[in-house]
Amino acid sequence: MPGLVSPTLSSDDVDALLYLTRVNETAELQQTLSDLTQKYNCLPGDVIASAVDPDSGNTVLHFASANGFLDLVKSFLHQLVPVANTNGVNGTSADQSQSPQFVNRQNQEGNTPLHWAAYNGHLEIVKSLIDVGADMWIKNSAGHLAMFEAERAEKNDVVQHLLQTGGAHVERGGVETEPTIDEIVDVDTSPGEDEATSSGAAQQTGMGDVDMHDRQP
């Protein structure tokens, strides 16, 4: 039965998946996923969860989220999130049962796919990630929440959605480590950084290189 063991992809396999994601070559990417599921005798979700750049820590979900490829993000999430089959048994792969961990995977700069989607203002992707368990309280290496990165990039619709989502969650009663509602509101009302500070923070968190349309792997 496929999907019982996560595959160890070759470096060429990982490079191909990351590159095809970055340039949004959907048809070729799906064919590559199909080929790799046969090669490693696993499910597509296993391949997706194993496609991680060993140097940067970026995943296919980081790049799709950063560049606003909503259909691709939804496709990845559909293959990662457990879906009940007609017999009522979860058709999960080795990594599908741990989909929140993959969705919340941090790269070398501590950024999750949600950080990148929020920073670039991709509201529908932000919503999709949160719907499947993206944790909006994770901080990157600069100590910033995804909400803060959206506010710094002046993506006001994303900020507003995260404020509403976070506020509702805190009011329902969250874990002790989550911020209070006052702390959440402070993200939207705190004084802005000057240009030099903002630029430095972008470099520190890797946000300055989020848009990967024209970059080669």
UniProtKB/TrEMBL annotation:
Polar residues: compositionally biased ranges: 197-206
Family annotation (InterPro entries): Ankyrin_rpt, Ankyrin_rpt-contain_sf
Keyword Heme applies: no
Feature: compositional bias, Acidic residues: 186-196
Keyword Membrane carried by entry: no
Stretches the record annotates as Disordered: 186-217
Start-end of each ANK repeat: 109-141
Record keywords: ANK repeat, Repeat
Gene3D superfamilies: Ankyrin repeat-containing domain
Record's protein name: Ankyrin repeat-containing protein
Organism of provenance: Extremus antarcticus
Upper classification of the organism: Eukaryota, Fungi, Dikarya, Ascomycota, Pezizomycotina
